[in-house]
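The following record pairs a protein chain with its ligand, glycine.
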Amino acid sequence: MPTVVVAPAGQEPYDLLVERGALGALARAVGEGTGAVALVADARVFGLWGERARAALAPTHRRVVPLIFPDGEASKTRETWARLTDALVAAGVGRDGVVVGLGGGVTTDLAGFVAATYARGVPWVAAPTTLLGMVDAAVGGKTGVDLPAGKNLVGAFHHPRAVVADVDALATLGNELVDCGVAEMVKHLLVGGGGAADFAALARWRASGPAWLDDAADHVAASVAIKAAVVREDPQEAGRRAVLNLGHTVGHALERVSGYDLPHGLAVAIGLAVEARITVAAGLAPPEVAVAVAAALAALGLPARLPAGVAPAAVLAATAVDKKGLGGRARYALLAGVGRPARGPAGWTHDVPDAVVLAALEASR
Ligand code: GLY
């Protein structure tokens, strides 16, 4: 089974197991000799994969406590965190318990945060069922919930004990959810040494029809390996890990302005295009970089322009609440070239004049 070792500095290393049928390895990932297993999933994912996960755990873990919540980003709240935590108490899950997050990024962020805080921290295993979850959200220990003021404003770093990515789950995703994951894979190539051949291979895979599942494990593993290398060096985003936020300052602002109607990955795709223009306007890279980013997104059928009716000034205003901002100003991860993040005088993020951001947003309408 393709395995990527994630070894964050100063933390226990853990494996990401990725292949068709990987859920069968869930009990091994959870570990023997544990107490109850709290299986956190939204109602939709539990209906699709919950019984398979339970069956995988049954031989070694007699007590599986399903904790089910309504699907959607609207559930990633303090209120859901409180309900799930109360349910763990009610079910008598002790400090020997393990939380499993089975689902997309909302679920693994939420389940990881429940695990980070319950009884001052219990272990957890991420079992991502979306492409975005497999290549990004479930790996690297970022957990948390959204506040009305912004996404992920409350959270903790709490690395999972293992990540079990069953690519069979990708067969149940609609096109839009696949696109969301592909956008994060583009981001990884842009900051992790990707070149024209890598973008072309990604586009060929995306267009390969039903057979794409057969090659999915290799593509997921390659993408996660880029993230793992960054997380190894800087697990808590003290510096270099910020490069993984490429496309996200504008992306999060677009999500906010759309009232969270625009899915995260599509917002990130547009954010990558806009932030490539910002990179060029800031003099960090030649114009060919923005052209190459736009071409890579187009070849993958990903959006690169602001949705109709979205005002650039509103997007600029929404960047101010981004949690990565310092002193109320947004910070941008930018590029030095295709495959290379830009390091500036203040490190891996950049303070960009509002006029530059606004011009890039205007040019992306
Ligand atoms: N999604 C970016 C990171 O995990 O740092």
